[in-house]
Structures are given as structure tokens and as C-alpha cells.
Specification:
529 residues; alpha/beta; SH3 type barrels; Leucine-rich repeat, LRR (right-handed beta-alpha superhelix); eleven-stranded mixed β-sheet; cytoplasm
Length: 529
């Protein structure tokens, strides 16, 4: 008996065991009997050839060994959406219902209170209770009968349709159009066809807020065409789609707050300019996109760009950024508060990771979170003071001066250190005695001469101590305990800078070294309890 083949089999997605593929040929094969399906597999290792068999090219594959022939009875063409829901949540007549306590029944992972489940009406009530539905890897291939979903699942808001057998965006529209208040939709890992020309706009996604299209082979052009039907979309996930070129979104994606383009090898960093005017974009994820530089050419040194006006969170980790100029450019973003930049060649330019972090903090004025770690006010102050000292000699040599009228640093210096003038305004120009330069890290250079006082014990004479700048606050407390016999758990430390009179800074983190707080020789440590 010949296995049944759907009339629209060509181009359909199928599964065979754990393997997924697309039907590229339906018909006979020379010197064999019956109908065969020529399948291009997602995993090329599953295949045997490129669609050519005994000299005849039956179909084409992207990979030279990505295809093979299978009999139709080996291919799973999938089920409709509602069947998948009933199977997944144990509401199918064919499946055993797993009963819980006296008044409950367990549907998959969900426990719902009810009495009895023999009637169709009771089954209907249980389906109507489902709000958050996941049918991941349930072989969904089509919507099913018209309006059946809207009659059966009236309260659905969030749907996970990832890794199924959906062949086209039209199928997604058919399902979504029957879900009145759809807010979240994940159709990732479905290799499907998207419209290539402008089509009539569907109202299926009129309330959609979150959409995931990872690993769907969608292009940016197709994104913009489909986006005409996403009037309220706030989050769009597009990772791993081989998107290389971006185009300017005209009258679409205006409500978008988050865009994930990770794992797409963009042509260059300038591709970002065409999406730079999305008015509400707050989070941009560009992990592993191959970018090597970032530039905002509309703004000069120390000025803010008009690009990405609302961008608060940026992820550029796992890229090819090697120059500090890209970090300088990020200070031009008016709203940037959080940055992820790990695993870039730039991270190898400094041997000391603490120094690297301090430089990034000092270069980006409004940053509050770096690589998922909060930047404390004391950390920012220390980073900025250190930056001001380290590059002070370069500033003087480039034309910087303590006298504002004579202060004219060169264009080259300002290009390398665009924040330096504002740091001088904030803390004052560095004095000659505090200019550090980049000194070799000998023990002599690392020792701090500090005066230690106990304000609560005026009879106690101040003590002078030489301490390594790498010594943690916890170890300093241990030393002072032996000196003053004050328990470390009760001890509170702060210091007064010899350069900033009347300003006292609390040493509030036991795990941080003295250098974290920018303490210098000549400063006074105050001990209280």
C-alpha cells in the first residue's frame, strides 16, 4: 500500500526521528518503484548527496551532502495546533489523564481544579483556562480548521511554537489570527518562507508585544515587510539568521524597546547607523556580530549623538573590537547606562583586568552597570581620579595647562581622551605632584605612606604606616585591630584626601584594595567603631 503524500508536500517541513528537513522533491527515482521524498536536512550529516542520484539531479541542496531520499511513510508532516495542545496537556481522548488529589487533574505540568472529565464540555473548560501555552517540538505544521482555535482556547496570551514543522509565515498568521489577545509568540527554530513583497497587513499581531524569530532564516528585508503588521511590538529576537545587511526601518518598529541581532555576521559596524533612529529602542544585543568598530560621526569630542536616543543597555561582547576609540564613541550615547563588552581583543590590551575596568568606567560618564556588575559611586570616583592622574603628563605634553586661558590640548589628545576636559572640570586639573604616568610596578611605587587617626580617642597619637596599595580593607582592619585592639567587625574606616580638603570617603567594601578608593601617600585614614 502506497503511503499518503499531502498535495502540498513540496516545500513542507518534515521530521524523521530526531532529524528535521525540507521536502525538495516528490516523485519517482530511476530504477526504483514507488514515490520518494527528496529531503534537504537541517543537519547535513544526516544526508548522503546533493540531490543528484545516478547522474540525475532531482533537487538541489546548499550542502554537497545535505540531501537524501526517504519513503513518505518515514516522514512526519506534523499535526494541527489544537491537536498538539491536547497532546501536550493531556487533553486528548487517546491519552490517559493523570489524576491528582480529589478535586484536581494534572495536564502535562499544569494542575487544574475540577470535578470529573468525562464530558466534552469539561474538556472545553480546561482548554479555556490555558493562558501560557508551550507546544515546543510537538510537530505543529498547520493551524487546523478555521476558527477552531478561537472557539477552544479563548484565554491564550503567550505561545511557544519553537522547533516545530511550520513551513511558512502564513501558517503563523493563520494561528495568531485566532488568538484575540496574543502578547508573546516564539516561533524560533522553524525554517520557513517569509513574504518577499509587500502583502495585505494582517491584524493577527495587533496586540503582540514580544516576538522571537531566532534561527528562522529570515532576512532583514523580510523583517521590515512583516513588521508592518506588528504595530505594538516591544521586543524582537532575531539571533542566528545570517542577517548581514540592515536597511532603515521606515514607519515600522517605532514601538520597539529591545532588538536582539546576536550571532548574525553584520557587514560592518556602520550597519548600525540605519537602525539608529528607532525612537524607543532601549536595549540592543549585538553579541557575536563580527563588528570591529563603533562610530557616531554626527557628534564631536565631548558631544552627544542624535543616534539611539533612548538606548540604555548595549551588549557588544564576543566581537572584534580592538581600539579604545570605540569605547570613547560610546560616551556619545545620551542614555547609555549598561554595557557588556567581554571577549573583545580590546580586553587583552591591559594585563591587569582591574585597570581595564577602571579605564572603561572613566571613559563612559553615565555608565552604571559594566559586564553585569554595578558601578558603585566610590568605584567611579576612583576610576576617574586615576584616569586624570595617569594621563596627566600626556595632557601637559599635548598643550594642557592649569591656567584655563593657556589650556589648549591638541586634537590628537582629545580624540584619544575626549572625557579628560570634563574630568578636569569635575575634580580640578591635576597638580604636578600627583601626576602618575605609567610607572613600573615596583614595591616602592606600590607602597602608600598613610597617617592613621582615631577621632573618638583624641588621646591616641596619630600613627604613620607604609601599606601596599593592593592591601584589601579587610587586611587593613586586621592590622589596625592589632594596633588599637578594636574588633574588626565593629571597625569603620574612611579617609581624608590631602588634595580635597574637608571631603571624607568611606572605605565600605572589605574585599576592595586601597587603590580602588584612589588613596594616595599623605592621605589620612580615620578609624571609628
Amino acid at each position: 500500500m502506497t503511503a499518503w503524500v499531502p498535495p502540498d508536500a513540496l516545500g513542507r517541513r518534515v521530521s524523521c526521528g530526531t532529524d528535521y528537513g525540507t521536502v525538495r522533491y516528490v516523485g519517482t527515482v530511476s530504477r526504483t518503484a514507488g514515490i520518494w521524498l527528496g529531503v534537504e536536512w537541517d543537519d547535513p550529516q544526516r544526508g548522503k548527496h546533493n540531490g543528484c542520484y545516478e547522474g540525475t539531479q532531482y533537487f538541489n541542496c546548499r550542502h554537497p551532502k545535505g540531501g537524501s531520499f526517504i519513503r513518505p511513510n518515514k516522514a512526519n508532516f506534523g499535526v494541527d495546533f489544537l491537536t498538539a495542545i491536547k497532546d501536550r496537556y493531556g487533553l486528548n481522548d487517546k491519552q490517559d489523564v493523570q489524576y491528582g488529589t480529589e478535586n484536581t487533574v494534572v495536564f502535562g505540568t499544569k494542575t487544574v481544579e475540577f470535578v470529573g472529565m468525562d464530558s466534552v464540555a469539561e474538556q472545553q473548560r480546561q482548554l479555556n483556562k490555558l493562558v501560557d501555552i508551550s507546544v515546543r517540538e510537538c510537530a505543529v505544521s498547520h493551524a487546523g480548521q478555521t476558527e477552531e482555535i478561537s472557539r477552544t482556547c479563548t484565554n491564550m496570551r503567550h505561545i511557544n511554537l519553537s522547533k516545530n514543522l511550520i513551513s511558512s509565515w502564513e501558517t503563523v498568521i493563520d494561528i495568531a489570527s485566532q488568538v484575540q489577545n496574543l502578547e508573546t509568540l516564539n516561533v524560533s527554530e522553524n525554517k520557513m518562507k517569509f513574504p518577499s513583497t509587500s502583502t495585505s497587513i494582517s491584524s493577527a499581531f495587533s496586540n503582540l508585544k514580544i516576538l522571537a524569530l531566532n534561527q528562522t532564516e529570515i532576512t532583514w528585508t523580510e523583517v521590515l515587510l512583516c513588521a508592518q503588521g506588528w504595530p505594538t511590538l516591544e521586543e524582537l529576537y532575531l539571533s542566528s539568521n545570517n542577517i548581514t545587511v540592515l536597511e532603515r526601518p521606515d514607519n515600522v518598529l517605532k514601538t520597539l524597546k529591545l532588538l536582539d541581532l546576536s550571532d548574525n555576521q553584520l557587514l560592518d559596524g556602520n550597519q548600525l547607523h540605519v537602525i539608529a533612529h528607532l525612537p524607543r529602542l532601549e536595549q540592543l544585543i549585538l553579541r557575536n556580530t563580527g563588528i570591529s568598530s563603533i562610530q557616531f560621526p554626527d557628534a564631536g569630542f565631548g558631544c552627544k549623538t542624535k543616534m539611539f536616543p533612548s538606548l540604555k543597555r548595549l551588549a557588544i561582547n564576543d566581537n572584534k573590537i580592538s581600539q579604545w576609540s570605540s569605547i570613547n564613541e560610546l560616551d556619545k550615547l545620551p542614555s547609555l547606562r549598561s554595557l557588556q563588552c567581554n571577549n573583545n581583543p580590546l580586553m587583552d590590551t591591559e594585563k591587569n583586568p582591574e585597570t581595564l575596568i577602571q579605564l572603561i568606567i572613566a571613559k563612559i560618564s553615565q555608565l552604571e552597570v559594566l559586564n553585569n556588575c554595578e558601578i558603585l559611586p566610590a568605584e567611579r570616583r576612583g576610576a576617574e581620579l586615576d584616569y586624570r592622574k595617569i594621563f596627566g603628563k600626556d595632557w601637559l605634553e599635548a598643550g594642557g595647562h592649569w591656567d584655563p586661558e593657556k589650556n589648549k590640548p591638541s586634537e590628537e589628545f582629545l580624540a584619544a581622551h575626549p572625557r579628560y576636559p570634563s574630568l578636569c572640570l569635575k575634580y580640578g586639573a591635576p597638580e604636578e605632584g600627583e601626576l602618575k604616568g605609567r610607572q613600573p610596578l615596583t614595591l616602592k611605587n606600590q607602597l602608600l605612606t598613610l597617617t592613621i587617626k582615631c577621632p573618638e580617642k583624641p588621646e591616641q597619637k596619630p600613627v604613620e604606616k607604609k601599606l601596599p596599595e593592593s592591601m584589601t580593607i579587610q587586611k587593613v582592619k586586621g592590622l589596625l585591630y592589632r594596633l588599637f585592639k578594636i574588633p574588626g567587625s565593629e571597625m569603620k574606616l574612611s579617609y581624608e584626601s590631602s588634595k580635597l580638603e574637608g571631603k571624607e570617603v568611606e572605605l565600605d567594601n572589605d574585599l576592595k584594595p586601597l587603590q580602588f578608593y584612589s588613596i594616595e601617600s599623605g592621605d589620612c585614614v580615620l578609624v571609628r567603631w
